[in-house]
Design brief:
- Keywords: 2Fe-2S, Iron, Iron-sulfur, Metal-binding.
- GO terms for molecular function: 2 iron, 2 sulfur cluster binding; electron transfer activity; metal ion binding.
- By secondary structure, the protein is α+β, with helices and mostly antiparallel strands.
- It has a single domain, classed as Beta-grasp domain (Ubiquitin-like (UB roll)).
- 12% of the residues lie in helices and 20% in strands.
- It has helices at 23-29, 65-70, and strands at 2-6, 12-16, 49-52, 82-84, 97-100.
- It has a 5-stranded mixed β-sheet, covered by helices on one side.
- The chain starts with a strand and ends in a 6-residue tail after the last strand.
- The structure holds FE2/S2 (inorganic) cluster.
- Residues 24, 37-39, 41-48, 84, 86 line the site of FE2/S2 (inorganic) cluster.
Amino acid sequence: PQVLFTLHNGTVMSVAAATGHSVMEAARNNGVPGIVAECGGAAMCATCHVYVDPKWLGKIAAMSDFEDELLEGTGSPRMETSRLSCQIPIDDGLDGLEVTVPPSQY
Ligand code: FES
């Protein structure tokens, strides 16, 4: 599946993601800047924050209470569409998923 990342400068990067990987891993494996992912996907750092396009919000995995709590500590403002990209597993139904990278992860 393709995942589209809109960078802070407006550039859109379309990357081929492997099913079973997370959106964070797809970003890191393809050199998408702005996804720091300090904890490596353990849901501990909140530096993999992304804004999910509203039309995809209902299609991705639901947010855990733990993720919800961690999102209170993001470097860029939390919005209704905020998620931790390491907590979004990719499957074939998410082909074309659009996320925006926030201005900063700190
Ligand atoms: Fe650390 Fe997602 S990579 S919370």
